[in-house]
Structures are given as C-alpha cells and as structure tokens.
Amino acid sequence: MPHNKIAKEKIYDIAIIGGGINGVGIAVDAAGRGLSVFLCEQDDLASHTSSASSKLIHGGLRYLEHKEFRLVKEALAEREVLLKKAPHIIKPMRFIMPHRPHLRPAWLIRTGLFFYDYLGKREKLLGSNHVYFKADSPLNAAITRGFEYSDCRVDDARLVVLNAVHAREKGAQIVTRTRCLTAQQKQTYWQLMLQDQQGQYQIRAKVLVNAAGPWVAQFIQEKLKLKSPYGIRLIQGSHIIVPKLYPQKNAFIMQNDDRRIVFAIPYLTKYTLIGTTDREYQGDPAQVKITLQEIDYLLQVSNAHFKKQLTRQEIVHTFAGVRPLCDDESDNPSVITRDYTLALSKVEAEQAPLLSVFGGKLTTYRKLAESAMQQLKPFFTHLPLSWTAYEALPGGENISSIEQLVIEIKNQVADTPEDLAHRWADNYGSRIWAILGTINSVAQLGQDFGHGLYALEVDYLCQQEWAVTSQDILWRRSKLGLNFSDDEVAVLDRYLNSYHRGAAKEVN
Question: What positions does the domain FAD dependent oxidoreductase occupy (predicted)?
Fold first, then answer.
C-alpha cells in the first residue's frame, strides 16, 4: 500500500499487529461494527502458523480427554457457523478412527463420540457410528473395526485471506510486508512507527491489538518495552505430503502408542496429508522446519495402520509451523491447552489500552474475535452487537452448491477443463465472476503459466489479495506449488516482477 494512500493524520480506533487468522478475524469483526481499523503484517498474510495447520475445522476430539469441554463445545458449534459462511473453502469430511484396544477401550471412545455428537449443535454434519472393515480396507488386516464421525476440512491460508478481504470491504486498512518497529503510549492513543519497502511512517490508534502469534510475547518485550502478562510455549507441528495412500474420500485419525493422534487426510485429489507432531520449539518461528525424527515418527504411525508402507523417498513435500500456546506449565507439549487467552493491559484513566492474544486455534478464530470485541467494548460507546456469525465470507455469497457453480463456470467458459473449473469454484466461490467478467474462452485468460494458472488470475491475486511473490500465489492463494517446476516458478517470478514494477510506476 503506497504511503500516500494511508491516512496517517487520522487516529484509528484499532491498530492490529499480525495478519494471521486471529488478527484478520478481529479486523473484520471490528470494521463491521463501524470502527476504523489498521492492520499490519510483517510478511504475507497467513505466512506462518495459520498456513501450517492440518487444514481442519474441528471440535478437537482428543481435547475431551484433557477435559477442555468449553473449548470443544465452542469449536463444535463453530463448524456449522463456518460451513455456512464459507461453503467453497470449508467442506464436511468423515473421519475414521481405527480401534486399537490396547490404547483406548471401545467404551471410552464411544463416550467421547457421544459428547462430540451432542455438545455442539449439528445441522449439516452427520453423527458418529461404529464401522467394520472388509478386505478392501486400506488398513492393515489386523485392524477390523473402528469408529466414524464428522468434522470439516479447510483451505487455511484462504480462510485468512478471505477474512482480510472482508475486513477491507468493511473499511479496514490492511498492509502486508510492513513491520512495526515501535509502539509508544501517548496518553489517549498509541503511536506506531512502521516500516515497509518504501521507508518508515507513523500511524496513531486508540487501541493496540497484539495478534503477533508466535511473536506475541516478544513484541510486548521488545517493541513495547513492557513485561508480558503470560509466557508463551512454541509447539512445533509438522506434516508430510505423500502420493495418495488410499482411494476413499474420508480421513483417518490414528492412535499411536504415545497416546497422541495423527491424521491422514485426502489432499488436493492426488495426495495424502499426514500430521501433526508435537514438540517444543526454541528457535526463530520464521525458520521452523520438519526434523528427521518427526518424519520418521509420522512414517512409523502411518505404517502401523496402512497396508501401503511408506519410506522417506515417497514424501513429495513437508511443512512445519509453531503453535503459540499460552504457557500452562504442562510437562507434555500434547496436553498444553489449545484454548485462547486475551490479556487486556491494566491501564490508568485516559491511557490507551493494549489487548494481547495468546494461543487459540483456527476453528475458534471468529469466537476469539467476538471475545476480543467484548473486552474492548468499554472503550467504544454504543458498539453494535456481534454480527459475523450471519454474514458469508467473500465468495460464500449466493452459492446453491459447488457443483452448480462448476456448471455455471463451464457454461460461460465452455472450454474450461473440469479440474480448473473445480479449482476456481473451490478457491473463489461466487467471486470467480469478479475474475472472469465477460470472458468466454480459455484463450482470453492471458499468459499460461502451466497447471491451470493464467495471467488473469495472477493479476486478480495481486490487485485484490495482496499477492506479491510466486510463493504467495502458489502456496497460500492457489495450492498449486506442488505442481510447479523450478523453471515454471522462474517464469512466474519474472511476470510478477514486471507486473509490480508497472504498478509502482502507475502510482508514482
């Protein structure tokens, strides 16, 4: 965002640090209630924790073992809310848990699934049941029965981006690749010194929200020169992607001997996603990478369950992230609470407040944002009621079904390949018409970068979704990264460099 388009003289109601799911969730909620909002992200949207998840909207079946009933109930209810808000990027999925009696008795699993079925309101999702495996099962022959229940899969990075788009459409100012250097309390407002590629500038805001994720405590200590009210535990979660392990469309939830669980989830039609791990992480959150020990752990869990045996050679991609969990002094990383904690600074009269977000999970981001607004309500008179449960995210409006949208796309662009029409429908929902306009043939889509990516879509992502680099487009906006060769990426990079040089000249 060019400096000359940022209202530096005004005092924003809220300034938010962090463009992950919690930051953009708070931004859209606040902007929709009529507050002026500024959000800055030091890298790309969803470039860290929020794009390194298991791609699930789920209640968290295993959290019941740790008696986190409030969190599970909230998450279960949110599945239905988010399904309505974003039916293009969130889809129901059946999960099968193979029964391994030496790990958990059947009665315990049935009890957990009973709570799972009835703790939260279900409208679209089916309940749980017992299943028996036949000879065609992908599981090892020794595994003969299990349990089945419902949760949802999600494109996590697009969930973040679409919330950012929604926030902008409600009036929020969203800037990426912009670092907050300092933030100082000036009695009734905060003064932030920011830096982007053009240089440094200042903004002011009545309230500062610290949604910096893994950097939440570091931001308080280093940028604000204050003491963090809570410690943060960085818990690494890593995943591997392999060629499709089984033909079925359901996911598997696998119990391991250490009492942890690992998911095997269908991914992008041709692959299976396996994860996640739980290990303490001490390094720079921006540099987290999967370890060989984690790779071997995930392979071991998969091989203990599936007929198809995997080695390191089958792995086509890995990714890792850190979950910034509020330190509850648990000895075992797997049992640290996944619930969120909102810390409102104890401010004197007339001093600008600080709200910091510790922990949280993808599924409950919207409720976290509502809780944040409730905490900030005393600072804004006549704040409207919560509203985000009832309004679709961009692209989720006016969709009867994804299948019908695919038909409509192919009716307009008759030579669209089936897989491309499906990707457009899944990625953009009803916003695909903002990309296609009146185009009626693939030849009109512009330069072909391969694998169904054309210049028209790339231009849209740069103009409307803050995309700058090939990484932004291939891994966080389209999930096409697994298909692109180094040479194809280089061609896209050259195009993007030319595009952004041209855009910069137009602004100047």
Answer: 13-332
Residue 309 has pLDDT above 70, yes or no: yes
Q: What angle do CA 196, 197, 203 make, to 5 degrees?
A: 25
Contact status, residue 445 vs residue 420, Cβ threshold 8 Å: no
Q: Please give the C-alpha separations between residue 117 and each of 76, 98, 234, 313, in angstroms, as whole numbers.
A: 9, 18, 31, 39
pLDDT at 227: 87
Rounded Cα–Cα distance for residues 107 and 434 (Å): 52
Architecture of domain 54-156+233-324: 2-Layer Sandwich (3.30)
Handedness of CA 11, 13, 17, 18 (dihedral sign): negative
Strand intervals (E) in 429-499: 448-450, 453-454
Residues 6+ apart with CB under 8 A from 454: 442, 445, 446, 447, 448
Nearest C-alpha neighbor of 109 from the set 69, 59, 58, 64:
64
> Does the pLDDT at position 122 exceed 90?
no
| Closest by CA position to 253, among listed 402, 155, 147 | 147
Q: In what helix (H) or strand (E) does residue 321 lie, and over which residues does it extend?
A: strand 317-326
Q: Do the strands 448-450 and 453-454 form a parallel or antiparallel pair, or are they unpaired?
A: antiparallel
- What does DSSP say about strands 37-40 and 11-17: parallel, antiparallel, or unpaired? parallel
Name residue 145's beta-bridge partners.
Answer: 132
DSSP state of 285: G
Q: Which two tokens stand for residue 107?
A: 């009665």
- Nearest Cα to 94, choosing from 263, 277, 330, 216? 263
Distance CA 395, CA 414 (A): 22
pTM check: above 0.85: yes
Q: Name the residue among 123, 119, 103 with its Cα closest to residue 111.
A: 119
Location of structure tokens 């909620």 = 29
Q: Nearest Cα to 395, choosing from 156, 158, 97, 71?
A: 158
CA distance 294 to 240: 9
Instruction: List the one residue out of 129, 121, 67, 84 whose CA is nearest residue 328.
Output: 67
Which tens digit of pLDDT belongs to each residue from 211-254? 999 999 999 999 988 888 888 889 999 999 999 999 999 999 99
Q: CB under 8 Å, gap of 24 or more: what pairs does 471-477 form? A: 471/44, 472/44, 475/51, 475/157, 476/44, 476/45, 476/46, 476/47, 476/51, 476/157, 476/158, 476/161, 477/157, 477/158, 477/161, 477/427
- Domain boundaries defined on the chain: 3-48+158-231+338-390, 54-156+233-324, 402-507
Cβ proximity of 262 and 301 under 8 Å: yes
Quick one: how far is CA 34 from the chain centroid? 25
Q: In which element (H, E) is residue 34 found? A: none
Distance of CA 240 to the CA centre of its chain: 17
CATH of 402-507, one of 3.40.50.1100, 2.30.30.280, 3.10.310.10, 1.10.8.870: 1.10.8.870
